[in-house]
# Entry
Amino acid sequence: MATTTKAAAPAKKSGFGGVKDAWIIMLICMAAGYAFWYFILGNPDNFVGGDTAGHPKNLAGTVYKGGIVVGLIFTLLLSVVCLGVERFFALKTAFGTMSLPKFTAQVKTLIKNGDFDGAQALCDKMKGSVANVVSASIKAYKDAENNTTLKKAAKIAKIQQAHEEASQLEMPTLQMNLPIVATIVTLGTLTALFGTVLGMIGSFQALSSGGGADSMALSAGISEALVNTASGILTSWFAVVIYNFFTNKIDKLTYALDEVGYTIATTYEVNHADEA
# Structure
């Protein structure tokens, strides 16, 4: 009678696992972004004569003249920064309490020496996503040794399958919220372009009004265009750096997991060379 194996349950999480409802962060950032634009940058002290409709007398007033789109760009910029901090602490928990290269080297040595209890103890000390995956692979190794019905090739396949399943269970936690950061890379540029176009429209309206140029309206339109361009580029720059930084860290973790998984499967094959 054929038996089916139940998929391993994900290991119990400890520490900070990330914020699942990123929209809450973005709402808070929106409130903060528009509050900063309206109350701080739009402070009457930043304008000649204390009139926000007048000429700005410092950089803060100039940025305020960028218009309501500036508040949206600030929302995206703050969201990127907050999600970057969130990913930093989440990945710090996922990477565990030890240096990843040090843990990988030690656990590989223990596995090659057949000290699986020592490897499991090291995983318990390490914690995090890496330790969870390695623990699942070690458990699969021990189950394979106790299984007398499967052939060696099938047992090795089971070990590899357990490793891959455990890795897939951890990946959503590692990559959570990064797609939002990747989206903001494009949104920052598009929002800047939108604000720039609005500013240029204002400039052309100033040029065409009354047959002559209204210098105040013309300068306001140009300021709106340039401020939105600059702030949008800054937002996209931050988003690209943060996304690539954390993607690179996840890639390093994935490579380490693949290396340990290969070592476990190879060790079983070498230790059971006489097994059919």
In short: Confidence is low (pLDDT under 50) at residues 1-12.
